[in-house]
Structure formats: C-alpha cells, structure tokens
Automatic annotation (TrEMBL):
This is Glycosyltransferase family 2 protein. CDD domains: Glyco_tranf_GTA_type. Residues 5-135 form the Glycosyltransferase 2-like domain. The lineage of its organism: Bacteria, Pseudomonadati, Bacteroidota, Cytophagia, Cytophagales. InterPro entries: Glyco_trans_2-like (IPR001173), Nucleotide-diphossugar_trans (IPR029044). It comes from Dyadobacter frigoris. Pfam families: Glycos_transf_2.
C-alpha cells in the first residue's frame, strides 16, 4: 500500500502538466507513493503527455482519463480520481502548479504521523502571475500553526491554503449537496476536513501556485450573477454543515454577496429583482440607518418615484426663483 497518493487534476494544461508531474516524481521519500493524474477530457494534447509519463513510469504514474468533461469546475474529476487513491494520505496538485521542495511529501508525512489527531496539514506557497506581476507568498511569517473551524469562517471570504500545499487523510472527504453544486472546491474541502480535526501548518515555501488565464481563479467573476448566487448557496450550506455555530459571521458574509449582486452585469435593468436583493442584503447584514437610507434610495425606490420626489422637493425653490 502506498503511504501517499499524489492526485493531480488537470484540464487543457498541456503547457504545464509535464513540469507538474516531474515535480511529483522528484520527491525524495522513505515510503512508497503513487501519482494519479486525473484528466477532465483535455483537447490540447495534455493527454498524450500524461500517457507518455505513464509509459515511462509504469506503476508510478497512473493516467485517469475520463471519456467526457465531468464539469463543475473540475470537482467531479477530483471526486472520481480520489476514488482510485489507495494512499493513507492525499497530496493534491493542480495541473498548472508544481512543487519546489523535493522533501515536501516527506516533511508533511512526518508531521501527519506525529499528529494523528490532525485531519490535514499545509505549507507556504509562492503565487506567480502570468502577466509578470511580482510574486507573493500565500502565508505571512506569523502564520498560525494550528487551524480550526473558526479560522476558516468569517464575515469575508477566507483563503490561505493553496491546493498544492495541502496534505490530508484519505477517506475523510464526503460531498453534501451544497458541496457538489459549489464552484469552489478548496473552501468546502477545508471546512469538511476541519470537522474531522485540526489542520497544521508546516513552515516553508514548497510549491508554486500559478495564476494564469487558463486557471480556475480567473473564472470567478464578482459581477456575474451565477457566480455570486453560487457563493451564496455555498455559504448557506456551510452554515448548515456547521450547525449554525457561526451564523452571525456567515450571515454577514452572505450579505456581502447580495450586495455584489446589486451591481452584477445581469441586473442592470432588473428593478424588481434588485429591490428584493437589496432588502435581503439589509436584513442579513443588519445595516445601520445611514446604509438603509442609501440602499433604499439607490436600489429599492423606483427611479420615477425618486424623480417625482426631487421635482416636488424643488418646487418651493423654483417658485421663489420665478417670483424674482
């Protein structure tokens, strides 16, 4: 049995997948590990590269080639590939990212073996940008060493674990309906893991997280109704999953997305839908009087009514002007 299953998930990443697989092959360990490469029906030549590695490293690299794109932003590719993993621990890796430390797997396995009550661990990662912007590290120097549920849930969206930086116990994951419908895989995954035990931090930058036009991070559009409604659904699901333990924070987080919906591009000519969303936002956030007035003026009261109000309010001024 393998100690670790490296699970690489890819779709149309022919330009990157070779380096990703090489970074997994280059690991130095005192245990056996396998490399599963789940391809979500790529059409750019990535499959040929994956099969070439499988032929060169039989028994080590295993191609998981789906007969069609499974959809949901790669989630079902992840689920189906994980079903084949026999390792005690899972080390996920997106097909455009790569590991930079050849002892990454060893360090994380040593941590997990010495912390049997932990569900997962993660390390620092370097974010690099396709457009040449300066690289930045995901985690600060004072990164908290023990992560629990309350560290993952707040009034804003919380993210500080790159996919390529995580290792978690196999067979802990399950997929409630809200997870299966979510376009985010990482946030729900970490919530589920934290329910099963703390998540530890192993210091050191050991991977690169590429941000490029083909990556999932560029598909999250904060002015798109579908994306925003999906986030609302996801956080409502997390609220149920955590038995409303963090209800106050999550309601404010959900309110943020209702507020963004008001300015979504599909909402520009939809008064009645915007009015309902605005009311939801004010209720969930518990907005103060000033914000209530502003949102009511801008999104709830019809424009013709505001125009009529302005006309009536200005009548005394116009009357005085005409009398002179």
């Amino acid at each position: 049995m393998n100690k670790v299953s490296v699970v690489i998930l890819t779709f149309n990443q022919a330009a990157f997948i070779g380096k990703t697989i090489e970074s997994a092959l280059n690991q130095t360990t005192n245990f056996d590990y396998e490399i599963l490469v789940g391809d979500d029906f790529s059409t750019d030549g990535a499959r040929d590269i994956i099969l070439d590695y499988q032929n060169r490293y039989p028994g080590k690299v295993k191609a998981v080639l789906h007969s069609k794109n499974l959809g949901q932003n790669g989630l079902f590719n992840t689920i189906e590939t994980l079903k084949l993993a026999d390792g005690k621990y899972i080390a996920p890796l997106d097909g455009d990212d790569y590991w930079t430390d050849v002892t990454k797997l060893q360090k994380q396995v040593d941590f997990m073996d010495s912390h049997p009550d932990y569900s997962a661990c993660f390390h620092n990662a370097l974010i690099t940008y396709e457009d040449g912007s300066p690289s930045v590290e995901v985690n600060p120097p004072d990164q908290k060493k023990k992560i629990e549920m309350e560290d993952l849930i707040g009034e804003d969206e919380i993210w500080f674990m790159a996919t390529s930086a995580v290792m978690f116990k196999n067979h802990l994951m399950y997929y409630p309906e809200w997870f299966l419908k979510s376009t985010s895989g990482d946030i729900p995954r970490y919530v589920i893991l934290a329910k099963n035990g703390p998540i530890g931090y192993v210091p050191g930058v050991m991977s690169v997280y590429r941000k490029n036009k083909g990556g999932a991070s560029f598909k999250d559009h904060y002015r798109d109704v579908r994306f925003l409604r999906n986030r609302i659904m996801m956080y409502k699901g997390i609220n149920e999953e955590t038995n409303h333990q963090f209800d106050k924070s999550l309601r404010k987080n959900i309110a943020r997305y209702y507020r963004m919906l008001l300015d979504a591009k599909q909402m520009s000519r939809s008064y009645f839908r915007k009015a309902g969303l605005a009311a939801n936002y004010l209720f969930l956030k518990g907005a103060d009087l000033t914000e209530c007035k502003e949102v009511t003026r801008d999104y709830i009261l019809p424009r013709w009514l505001m125009s009529a109000y302005s006309f009536v309010a200005l009548l005394p001024y116009r009357f005085r002007q005409s009398s002179h």
